[in-house]
């Protein structure tokens, strides 16, 4: 038995969906532990593209159990839509292969309105959220005013909880955000309809995982966003509202830390970011445009253009420490093909100082200039390569250099969006820290 966490090391969109889909082959269970439908995870199978926002990226494998843990904030309307969309495409989804934690918090219509209203009010200073109500939902969770899946079981309980929070929400929406308000009856009607559809999927996810652990199954924990969007460790306040780091795989699902045997850090071969906030290696030039176009860097959730830059090893090294990474998965290496010279940021220049660690203060980070080292590029098309020996020598050199700078072995290299476009250097399930 070997349980593996997959997390993003940068600012999200590193290709977690693709790698989780590939690794799911060897696992019995894939479980999401944080975030919500701010995530957009892409899987490409047989030339067909699937984007999942809430459903774990194991769902295309018919025999895998997909779980949504208590740490996820769930918009039930989106979950139902996702289930329906998959079913319409011939994928079987039912309570036998998709369960959601009874402790997971529900995203309510007022969460979305608050999220969007606040962003509108902030104007130029907006965070660039996805507008899905993620932050306001986590906010209610922490201030103990949230509504959970278990509250949907009894309509009386749901109504009581709703009526205790709604007047305050409507007051805030109307008076401060100058936004529309929502009527209680319409929410009740909508959510009790959702309950009918989703209640068969509601379960004690912690218990399901505990049985799987006892049975010796492999479990894959699928992170969303990335370490530098983490509420504690990211570029605060330009972050999301959950802990995106591997440590949260435990609290977000109800499993103890001794059951985690490996942590894979997803590293895009360059850097991207959607929304506002610092990005030290950002390229506002032709090379940046080229990477953006070749990498088709548009958000899978909001369709926004992703900002692009060179690989930042300070960022990835920071993630290696915070997440105790045991391996790296490098994605989109193919996008760099054809660039004569590649750059990797190895440190920052801040005033007269050379910083080798990622700074916490936003003002310092914003004033940092990347210090680069250059590596020779390669021109060959690498999208059909399955064996590391067939990679161009400079591509190998680029991978080895990342490994050295981050002091973590590269286990997986992805050379295209398709499920089969992968080079496995080391099987993460056979190289956990220890196995029972
Ligand atoms: P996630 O949020 O981490 O799951 O990543 P996204 O799905 O938001 O973004 C990654 C994008 O890159 C998707 O469009 C993937 O299909 C695509 N992708 C993943 N791996 C590769 C790769 O190795 N090469 C190329 N060219 N595209 C990839
Ligand atoms: P995946 O899982 C990239 C960003 C938003 C915004 C900030 C806060 O696909 O990698 P939020 O709606 O979470 O309050 O927005 O976080 N963000 C992501 N960026 N990938 C994601 O998820 C993201 N989820 C949120 O763009 O800057
Ligand atoms: Mg994404």
Major sheet: 10 strands, mixed
* Bound ions, cofactors and other small molecules, one mention each: guanosine-5'-diphosphate, 6-O-phosphoryl inosine monophosphate, magnesium ion
Radius of gyration: 22 Å
CATH topology of the largest domain: the name is Adenylosuccinate Synthetase, Chain A, domain 1
List keywords for this structure.
Adenylosuccinate Synthetase, Chain A, domain 1; alpha/beta; 3 domains; Adenylosuccinate Synthetase, subunit A, domain 2; binds guanosine-5'-diphosphate; 12 helices; 31% helix; binds magnesium ion; Adenylosuccinate Synthetase, Chain A, domain 3
Q: How would the blueprint of this fold be written?
A:
Layout: E1 3-8, H1 16-24, E2 29-32, E3 41-45, E4 48-52, E5 65-68, E6 73-74, H2 76-88, E7 98-101, E8 105-106, H3 109-122, H4 134-142, H5 155-176, H6 184-198, E9 202-203, H7 205-215, E10 219-222, H8 248-251, E11 262-268, E12 271-273, H9 286-294, E13 307-309, E14 311-312, H10 313-323, E15 327-331, E16 341-350, E17 353-355, H11 362-366, E18 369-376, H12 393-406, E19 410-414, E20 422-424
Parallel strand pairs: 1-10, 1-11, 2-5, 2-10, 5-7, 6-8, 7-9, 11-15, 14-16, 15-19
Antiparallel strand pairs: 3-4, 12-13, 16-17, 16-18, 19-20
Bound molecules: guanosine-5'-diphosphate, 6-O-phosphoryl inosine monophosphate and magnesium ion.
Explain this structure to me?
The protein has 436 residues and is α/β, with parallel strands linked by helices. The protein has 3 domains: 3-104 and 201-259, Adenylosuccinate Synthetase, Chain A, domain 1, CATH 3.40.440.10; 105-198, Adenylosuccinate Synthetase, subunit A, domain 2; 265-424, Adenylosuccinate Synthetase, subunit A, domain 3 (Adenylosuccinate Synthetase, Chain A, domain 3). Helix content is 31%, strand content 20%. The protein has a 10-stranded mixed β-sheet, with helices on both faces. Strands 14, 16, 17 and 18 form a 4-stranded mixed β-sheet that branches. Strands 3-4 form a two-stranded antiparallel sheet. α3 (109-122) packs across α4 and α3 (109-122) packs parallel to α5. It is globular. It starts with a strand and ends in a 12-residue tail after the last strand. 49% of the residues are buried. The structure holds guanosine-5'-diphosphate, 6-O-phosphoryl inosine monophosphate and magnesium ion. Magnesium ion is lined by residues 12-13, 39-41, 300.
């Amino acid at each position: 038995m070997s349980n593996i966490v997959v997390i993003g090391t940068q600012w999200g969109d590193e290709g977690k969906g693709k790698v989780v889909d590939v690794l799911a082959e060897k696992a019995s269970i894939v479980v999401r532990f944080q975030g919500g439908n701010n995530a957009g995870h892409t899987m490409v199978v047989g030339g067909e593209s699937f984007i999942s926002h809430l459903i774990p990226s194991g769902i295309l494998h018919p025999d895998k159990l997909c779980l949504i843990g208590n740490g996820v904030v769930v918009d039930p309307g989106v979950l139902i839509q996702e289930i329906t969309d998959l079913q319409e495409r011939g994928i079987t989804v039912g309570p036998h292969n998709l369960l959601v934690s009874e402790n997971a918090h529900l995203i309510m219509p007022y969460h979305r309105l608050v999220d969007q209203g606040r962003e509108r009010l902030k104007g130029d200073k907006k965070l660039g959220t996805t507008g899905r109500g993620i932050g306001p939902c986590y906010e209610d969770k922490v201030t103990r005013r949230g509504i959970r899946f278990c509250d949907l079981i009894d309509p009386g309980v749901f109504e009581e909880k709703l009526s205790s929070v709604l007047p305050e929400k409507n007051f805030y929406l109307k008076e401060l955000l100058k936004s529309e308000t929502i009527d209680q009856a319409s929410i009740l009607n909508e959510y009790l309809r959702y309950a009918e559809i989703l209640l068969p999927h509601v379960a004690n996810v912690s218990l399901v995982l505990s049985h799987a652990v006892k049975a010796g199954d492999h479990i894959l924990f699928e992170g969303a966003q990335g370490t530098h969007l983490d509420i504690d460790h990211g570029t605060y306040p330009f972050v999301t509202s959950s802990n995106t780091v591997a440590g949260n795989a435990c609290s977000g699902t109800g499993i103890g830390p001794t059951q985690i045997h490996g942590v894979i850090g997803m590293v895009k071969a360059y850097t991207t970011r959607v929304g506002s906030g610092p990005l030290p290696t950002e390229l506002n030039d032709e090379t940046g445009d080229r990477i953006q176009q070749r990498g088709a860097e548009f958000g899978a959730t909001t369709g926004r253009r992703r900002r692009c830059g060179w690989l930042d090893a300070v960022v990835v090294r920071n993630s290696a420490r915070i997440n105790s990474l045991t391996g790296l998965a490098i994605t989109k290496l193919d996008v760099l093909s054809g660039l004569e010279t590649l750059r990797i940021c190895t440190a920052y220049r801040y005033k007269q100082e050379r910083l080798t660690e990622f700074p916490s203060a936003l003002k310092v980070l914003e004033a940092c200039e990347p210090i680069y080292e250059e590596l020779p590029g390669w021109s060959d098309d690498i999208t059909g390569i399955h064996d590391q020996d067939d990679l161009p020598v400079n591509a190998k050199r680029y991978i080895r250099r990342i490994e050295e700078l981050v002091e973590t072995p590269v286990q997986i290299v992805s050379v295209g969006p398709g499920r089969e476009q992968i080079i496995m250097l080391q099987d993460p399930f056979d190289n956990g820290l220890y196995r029972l």
